[in-house]
Amino acid sequence: MLSLRRSLLSQTKKRKTKTKLKTNKNASRKQKIIAKSHQLEDNDNEEEEDEEGFNLKSSAPSHSHGVQPLGNLYFNPGSVNSRNTGLGNLQILSDELVLEILGLLEGTQLGFLATVSKSFYVFTSHEPLWRNLVLDKVEGGFSYNRSWKITYVSTFYPSFNVAKSTRIPGLRVRDFYSDYLFQSWLCANLEMKPEWLERDNIIRKRGISVEDFIMNFEEPNKPVLLEGCMDNWDALEKWDRDYLLNLCGDVQFSVGPVKMRLEEYFRYSDQVKEERPLYLFDPKFAEKIPTLGSDYEVPVYFREDLFNVLGNERPDYRWIIIGPAGSGSSFHIDPNSTSAWNAVIRGSKKWILFPPDVVPPGVHPSPDGAEVACPVSIMEWFMNFYGSTKNWEKRPIECICKAGEVMFVPNGWWHLVINLEESIAITQNYVSRRNLLNVLDFLKKPNASELVSGTRDRTNLHEKFKNAIEASLPGTIDELTLKAEEKKAQQKKVSFWDTVTDSKVGAFKFSF
Ligand SMILES: O=C(O)CCC(=O)C(=O)O
Question: N or C: which end of the chain has fewer CB within 10 A?
Answer without folding.
Answer: C
